[in-house]
Prior knowledge:
Blueprint: E1 2-8, H1 12-29, E2 32-38, H2 41-50, E3 56-60, H3 68-76, E4 83-88, E5 104-107, H4 112-129, E6 132-137, E7 140-145, E8 151-155, E9 158-162, E10 166-170, H5 173-179, E11 184-187, E12 191-194, E13 198-201, E14 205-208, E15 213-215, H6 221-231
Parallel strand pairs: 1-2, 1-3, 3-4, 4-5
Antiparallel strand pairs: 6-7, 8-9, 8-12, 9-10, 11-12, 13-14, 14-15
Amino acid sequence: MACHIAICDDNPADSGYLTKLLKIWGSKRNIRLDTETFSSAEAFLFCYEENKSFDVLLLDIEMKDMDGVTLAKQIRCENETLQIIFITGYFEYIAEGYEVAALHYLMKPVKEEKFFSVMDRAVEKIKQNDRCLNLNQSGVMVRIPLYEIRYLDVQKNYVTIHGRKDYTVKQTLNYFEKELDYRFHRTGRSLILNLNDIRRITKTEVHLSDGTILPLPRGAYEPLNRAVITYT
């Protein structure tokens, strides 16, 4: 496996240390690394405009001019799959990570064991993002990345897959349940939810990250809560 990684940190010593850790981790995991370092958010963006192939971004928060959180928000406007790992010396920034779906926060000084664990999670996320749901639409094969799917619901004999676009096919929810992975949870007879997209759960409703509010069937609240807690 190959992994394209960016380190964005205005402290050369910190960048050098992360580069060293990456080499050790890549060697232990038999992963071929292509690592690039950037001394500012602006330098990374300049490169990113021409090359969006990065898999992981190790991002310092406290930098001059544009800070790491601002950079992450700008990236997330068009890229949902880049694994962003914040590097910080301050706990107060942690809440902002939820806004940009950061994979993790690593506190300075970064510990090797913790770093390896987080990078292992990043690789698993990258592998997940490669998985697709294949649909036949009027004789044309459509591949929908699983991370794009927010939820699936059923009306009579038709299932609608809600992603960046909506696709409706004559099929059963049971069929799709077998095609999806552990990030999805079935709620009742007519709904499958992507646990990554859930932002709030009440006794009667589930709120998704895009503002969609879906009704919950009776008895679904506790199992869905457990599924979210287990998944995260």
